[in-house]
Amino acid sequence: xxxxxxxxxxxxxxxxxxxxxxxxxxxxxxxxxxxxxxxxxxxxxxxxxxxxxxxxxxxxxxxxxxxxxxxxxxxxxxxxxxxxxxxxxxxxxxxxxxxxxxxxxxxxxxxxxxxxxxxxxxxxxxxxxxxxxxxxx
Length: 137
Known about the structure:
Layout: H1 2-26, E1 30-42, E2 46-53, E3 57-64, E4 75-80, E5 88-94, E6 97-106
Parallel strand pairs: 4-6
Antiparallel strand pairs: 1-2, 1-5, 2-3, 5-6
């Protein structure tokens, strides 16, 4: 009986070592970048996001409407609950390349973080390199 208890004890000590090794083999190279947004501008092409870049800089990036079409698409629009939450965007990268994006915004377009694109303004420059989705910091 003592031998069985000792064998089970040794097995219990060794099992986490093998479990850790297996999980490292199955792990993926996924990371994310989370940015607080200053303004979100809806346009006919998609959403133009204004975010802080560096100390005094402002960056703009566009998310095309086509990315929001189905469940397995590149973008997901998530409504924030009422309160003092500020809109954010989370960009996911897999193996160093853009994977998908989650945009957290307020439901009410009356919230101060929603903006309006002036009539006649050309926002197409923010959607030119949409497939790579490169953020500037």
